[in-house]
# Entry
Amino acid sequence: MKIPQARGDVGAAVLDVLRSDPARAHVEPADEAVAVALARQPDLLRDEDLQLTLLVLYELHYRGVDGVDDAWEWSPALLGLRARIETAFEAQLRDVVPLPSGVGASAAEVAAALFALAAAEQGPSLSGYVAKQATDEQLHELLIHRSVYQLKEADPHTWAIPRLSGVTKAALVEVQADEYGGGDPERMHAALFARTMRGLGLDDSFGAYVDLLPAITLASVNMMSMFGLHRRLRGAIAGHLAAFEMTSSIPNRLYGNGFRRHGYSSDVTWYFDEHVEADAVHEQIAGRDLAGRLAEQEPQLHDDVLFGAAACLYVDGLVGAHLVECWSSGRTSLRPAPAPQRMVS
# Structure
């Protein structure tokens, strides 16, 4: 991912650190910036500076950031800085995300609760709006929002594979194998999404549009990375995947219809059409054999499985509401393009 432009003091300080030599850099100024920012008790879901900073720090664990030394990935000082932001982010999620109560301990009871949670009304229907009302310009915006996750689709959930065993590991591997095209690189879901972007004349390189994405969109992706990268949150990432799959099949059919309404061919809608069938199967595997069985086998993870699912629905609901609200009022859902950075002589 190319280095984005900073959105505040924290991002500016962290990006300065990342551009420097890991053997000689001083992280203290970035630490101080984080302390000041968190002392303001920000809304982490909508804090542009902190969410962008988290995204950049997480990308060090994926495919890296242009011009940043890979040695930064496991820098204790940088991990400590990230942990301070994560602690506040997780605390806010646990405070605001409503959880279902009275859910039994068995796999069947947990799965039933997850399906009920996913079926509940989560606010304005983004997929319904896309199917019937979205303009061509808004379809472009939708892909731009989705690109920060879909171009690396499945990767955050894959972190959980070595942290599971038996039935739950096999279930996750089965879902992820489909996400990665069953061994065919052209059928990887990330590759299909890239094809859709190219069909609309968009840049399909990862991170090309990060500077345009608001904090709430970044928060939805950062939440996945946070859940996936921490072993103690393996229940949350399992629950997240279950809810993600349970709310995918029908919405993707509607998204495909929205693109067909504007005359786009099956080459463009392939990504959405693929998910209609695949995720109808995935939701059963992820809900019952992964999340439900994990909560049953490791009872201490029961509440975290429910939390991960509820957090997925809550935050993605906020993203959808942002898009629908902006589009319904005739506004763009994206941030203004940043001004070109001046070269200092």
